[in-house]
Known about the structure:
This protein folds into four domains: about 5-280, Alpha-Beta Barrel (TIM Barrel); about 295-320, no CATH class; about 325-385; about 390-505, Double Stranded RNA Binding Domain. It has helices at about 10-15, 25-40, 50-65, 80-90, 105-110, 115-130, 150-160, 175-190, 210-220, 240-250, 250-255, 265-280, 300-305, 335-345, 350-365, 375-385, 430-440, 485-505, 505-510; strands spanning about 5-10, 40-45, 70-75, 95-100, 135-140, 165-170, 200-205, 225, 295, 325, 390-400, 405-415, 420-425, 445-455, 465-470, 475-480. The protein has 19 helices and 16 strands.
Amino acid sequence: MGDRVLVFDTTLRDGEQSPGGTMNTVEKIEVARQLARMGVDIMEAGFPAASPGDLDAVRTIAKEIKGVVIAGLARTNPGDIDAAWEAVQHAESPRIHTFVATSPVHMEHKLRKSPDEVVEIARAAVRRCKGYLSDIEFSAEDATRSDWDFLCRIFAAAIEEGATTLNVPDTVGYTTPAEFARLIQYLKENTPGIENVVISVHCHNDLGMATANTLAAVEAGARQVEVTINGIGERAGNTALEEVVMALRTRRDFYGDVDTRVNATELVPASKLITRVTDFQVQPNKAIVGANAFAHEAGIHQDGMLKNRDTYEIMTPQSVGWASTQLIMGKHSGRAGFRSKLNDLGYDIDAERSQTLYQRFIELTDRKKHVTDADIVAIVEDNLRKGEAQPFRVIDWRAHSSADGGAEAAVMVDAHGVEHEATGKGNGQIEALFSAIDSVTGIENTLERFSVDAVSPGEDAQGSVTVRISVGGNVFSGRGVATDIIEASVHAYVVALNRAAVAATTPERAKGAV
Ligand code: KIV
Ligand code: ZN
């Protein structure tokens, strides 16, 4: 067997069988185009006998999508096989995939047939397919709970009738890597004619081992893998295409030249497309395509990544279609990661200021789960403004309001190095606070503008408040940022007052105001 592993994508058939994962024909065609762009070898476009809509979707894909084998699934009955042919016959390279159950539990309770009868059913089905086309896949459903010698017998019969691919499904996700590899080896050694066909594997993820089982089978000689994007599929899903493709590619040292022809940079776009059309969200820690697959938050990891990405990344995010690595800014981020983030955001900040900013950032992470770039920009901008002279500094404040609309506030303000306490009243907490602050600063002013913006999304967003006051004909503005709008307002107001106070002692500055 060669080194090429054929990728048989069944997102549109087994993936679509996930409860709630139904796609309409337009969505299926969009997915089919993406699969073709990505370079899968075979796409199972659907189960034509399932409904007229399914037949129509498979037929449309067969007519439109070129450069890929288009397969239609069929049980072994003539009606299914005829419907599959009707749907795939227009494809550049059509395939019929027919299957029958081979495990004792399925044969006895579901099919109510003896093993001998099942072999005959398989023979007749493959023969019927052969009347239509030459690319025929035969699957022994529930193979991993079937008798191994019976599998060899039914596969040999399928080969005799003309099957070109033999699929070994782990229908209920029951096998283990070592056992599955032994089964593939056993089939290779005991099925007459198997050397002339492709051995395929189709794993489900009920025990979380679908990818491991698939890779073990590849090591044992399987050369077709049946997979779905994001691992969607019946129950716990199917083997994830992206995991198998990247495992083979990333561990070339182990798998040698055994590889697929998939263009891995299309993996993330494909994943996003499937999320959009099925509405199944990908878990953030999902390998390759999860939002956190290339995100580093821990300080030690960020530091390592900045020194050499090989420390914590075994593949690049770009190689699978992500734009870049993400250094997530959270409470576990260290100083090195934080400084690098400042650089990325375009700030050239000295070590001392960076240290102050880092403290403020860590305080914010206690209050806010996701600290965004916008939050960091807000912290920096706020701090840079603090480089200005500050005749007044609010040390503490309290405010409350009642249902009648009245509010009271108390502040402690450092004015020119002396601490003052003051109270104020107003129609709301902000007016009461501003009034209390005014009674300390003594700066008569008119509030020209007061605006609030959310700096980042979410309930714990930082609020940015801009205040504009006019003092003696000059206008001064201030901006404050905090998760609490009232606190941001106090900061903004004091910045504006400080600017007014400084301008009063340096009249040149008052002309331009701020
Ligand atoms: O899981 C399974 O056994 C299947 C077959 C139809 C191949 O999906
Ligand atoms: Zn399946």
